[in-house]
């Protein structure tokens, strides 16, 4: 997509920087009181932070971005990436003290961007669009933004084709989830899929083999042969998947020490995706 | 060890509860201003939080514990575990408001315990004490307490025999690291092993085969056959292991998507330990 953006713009048009010296400048209103906006929500906008995430977004064409705010000190190390942005994306530059006053805390990373979340296609449509060999992550009630971000990071690292979320899952575009995902939650195709039952029906209807992770799983992860259309279902932190889901699904476990059978769900997703992925493992 | 504690005490001696109604009560000084103490350090003491961690500690005999502080509301659900404690460990009980005033924030878990970190044996001694089939985790410069806790949780879940830390690693007994480890950092045998070079020498001298994790690793994780005495070395967040370490060691990588080769180090440890563990995977 980076090539698309480059093709639509003369490569030599210089990057225009907009200096900001007043924390109350209305042009940077989206960046004001970052943590309070985390709580009240950003109405379809997301906030991305840091060099690695912004590089990922610009490498994907930056077409979702509304604007960027960087500190003067951070500008030199990110300028080459900003140069890839479409020229209609304003790049604001502020001194560290002004930037801190805008966001409401000391923002040592010095790099922020606001974008618009892509409209999601319905889960059945997303699943139908995937290739004959495909790997899907399905999530039931993941409530913690660290875990959500970690799962998306793993999904991107192991080349999962999509992540489906049931209606009880938290928002993968919450600021902290984006940060923990290192931006993956902005690039991996995602759909809300209704209730867990509706999500499972959509997965089955699209011809995916579903495995559900549980410490009480009847098979071991290593028993599963990667291939075809596969989906792995992970349950909420603590209680895990409900009994009725486990009763109606092929269940797998990860063998653990008898005295300490406790894995974080994001780590579990990494282990499962490493086994099922097509990245060559 | 739970049986040891039981054997040394009459099982029927009732649990003595010490009511606390004054936040300034000197008997609960160790619990005062919890977050400030995180910063200044606890001089060899650790603070454990929550039901799961306290159950783990009591199941291990509770011999490292100095005292416990629980809220009245939390007492009923933890009383059976507290009953396993040696009777010389005082159990303080406070109302939620008093407990909040003691610790300095709203402590919704309502369960805290202070203990003394066990004296560490030197790394060579710890390694020599391990069986002929053994799995060791070696850490270079892990700086983030979440990652440290996550690695210990994985070490416990996959039955690793020990964790070695170089001198640049953060403290696995920091309050947050204990919490994220779900208590594992209190029970997995651990040693500080000096510089990374000294740590690697101790591992080699004890007859362990060492593999170092790196995205540029020359072999794949799946090429490694589990067995014998093995150690896996993980490097600091971001830069990873330094070139001189990678040049002198057998290096392995986890295959990832070309466009997103980024895994969290705790997740990486989970994937590696799942492959190498003796828990039956």
Automatic annotation (TrEMBL), chains A, B:
In terms of superkingdom, the source organism counts as Bacteria
* Keywords associated with the record: Methyltransferase, Transferase
Q: Which GO terms describe its biological process?
A: methylation; RNA processing
Tell me the Gene3D superfamilies matching this sequence.
3.30.1330.30, 3.40.1280.10
Does the keyword Transferase feature in the UniProt annotation?
A: yes
InterPro entries, per this entry? Alpha/beta_knot_MTases, Ribosomal_eL30-like_sf, rRNA_Methyltransferase, SpoU_MeTrfase, tRNA_m1G_MTases_N
Q: What is this protein called?
A: SpoU rRNA methylase family protein
Taxonomic classification, please?
Answer: Bacteria, Pseudomonadati, Pseudomonadota, Alphaproteobacteria, Hyphomicrobiales
């Amino acid at each position: 997509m980076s090539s698309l953006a480059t093709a639509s713009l003369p490569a030599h048009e210089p990057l225009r920087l907009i200096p900001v010296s007043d924390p109350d400048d209305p042009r940077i209103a989206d960046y004001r009181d970052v943590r309070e906006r985390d709580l009240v929500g950003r109405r379809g906008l997301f906030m991305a932070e840091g060099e690695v995430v912004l590089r990922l977004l610009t490498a994907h064409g930056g077409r979702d971005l509304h604007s960027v705010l960087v500190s003067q000190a951070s500008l030199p190390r990110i300028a080459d990436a900003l140069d890839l942005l479409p020229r209609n994306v304003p790049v604001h530059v502020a001194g560290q003290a002004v930037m801190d006053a805008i966001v409401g805390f000391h923002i040592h990373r010095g790099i922020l961007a606001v974008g618009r979340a892509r409209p999601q296609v319905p889960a059945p449509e997303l699943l139908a669009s995937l290739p004959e060999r495909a790997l899907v992550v399905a999530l039931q009630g993941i409530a913690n933004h660290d875990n959500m971000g970690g799962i998306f990071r793993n999904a991107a690292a192991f080349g999962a084709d999509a992540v489906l979320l049931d209606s009880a899952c938290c928002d993968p575009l919450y600021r902290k989830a984006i940060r923990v995902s290192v931006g993956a939650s902005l690039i991996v195709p995602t759909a809300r899929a209704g209730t867990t039952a509706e999500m499972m029906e959509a997965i089955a209807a699209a011809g995916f083999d579903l495995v559900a992770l549980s410490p009480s799983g009847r098979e071991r992860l290593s028993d599963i042969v990667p291939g075809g259309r596969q989906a792995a279902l992970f349950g909420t932190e603590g209680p895990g998947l409900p009994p009725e889901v486990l009763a109606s699904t092929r269940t797998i476990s990860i063998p653990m020490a008898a005295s300490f059978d406790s894995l974080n769900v994001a780590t579990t997703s990494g282990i499962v995706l490493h086994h099922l992925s097509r990245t060559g493992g």
